[in-house]
Records
---
Amino acid sequence: MVCLDTTFLIDVINRRVKLENLKSRFNNENVFIPSPVIVELSRGLHLKSNLKNIRSGEKEKIESILSLFNTLDFGKEEAMLAGKIEAELNNAGELIDFTDILIGAICLINSETLITKNKKHFEKISGLKTESY
């Protein structure tokens, strides 16, 4: 089972990656989207600095792609782990974006591999399995 990072979905939206490539490797029931990825996509749609880059129909395209996969939500167990991860990274001077910590915690709790372009970035989270695409 795998989780899709925001980078993968953005590349699908921008036609740099085809969903067919993913479907040939994994069955749709085994592919998930961590809920913080949805936060990142929504934030991208609404940031003033991004508005000039948002194309007509992009929100609908995102919603359509999101509807293809099940979501893994952020709950109490994930929250406890995310707090621990953030503290460990902070103590080591290795902080990453907090949303990425949430994504990592969800993947760890659910024993998922994260499909991402930012493999080196996520490797700072101990025990998180990542795969580049």
---
Amino acid sequence: MQININYPAIFVSVLLNFLLGFVWYTPLFGKIWAREMGMSAGDNPDKSLMIRGMVFMLIGNFLFAWVLAHNIAAWEFVPGAKEMGPVRSALSSAIFTWLGFYFPVDLGSTSWEKKSWTLFGINTGYHLASLLLVAFLLTHWK
């Protein structure tokens, strides 16, 4: 048995996930997120800090898509999984990954770091949206 990984789909996922993060944390929820993080409207990070953050985000997006692609591919060996189809496969992989790995961490960090539930909603919503976006791309681009 061999796991086949679609690297062009992974690289497109990296870019789309980066774009989703920009849209999510800028026009959609940027002002609310900044307020909940304790930032003022005039806070602009240093240019080198922004560049470093973007580079690390791209690296993180690659690892995220690469591992999710392996996870989705590995599930194809489970009896009956291929019959699920790409939509159910994408939904299952995204929702169960979010529910088992992201949601608990988001809950814990919100509780222990005394963050607001608004911030929790923005961040965990982004994690779910990101998983759905990448999972749909990976399951549909064969």
---
Amino acid sequence: MNALKLMAILLAAFSQNLVAEEAGKPLEMTVYRSPTCGCCSKWLEHAKQNGFKINDVISEDMETIKARFGVPEKLASCHTAIVDGRVIEGHVPASDIQKLLQSQSSLTGIAAPGMPMGSPGMEMGGQQDAYKVVSFDKEGKHEVFAEHGTNQ
């Protein structure tokens, strides 16, 4: 076996061990939310069920928090979360958060603008709006990160 193949095998094994170690440890997420928003509590449960350890911060001044973390006004929703240095705005599915965290991009965060019906925490029976999760960077540029709902 040549040295290059051996190095590739060792690197792959080492990488798998790192992923396995991280898999057992929940990622910490700080969530800022209004004390009067019930759907935020439901989204927190969704995040917990998907392996996130939650630091729940109640705030009366969500506008200041969103500005501090660079959430573009047109992408705003009801709560703002920070996980691994990335911003998660609104009712973003945990699978999209994991996708963002696994990416090597320089994105600031992702947002589910508004409060789309059928998104995590906004379940209303069987009703579901089609909605987009949008990525954004420090310059305020944004683009579609994921699409959900009936018109995918």
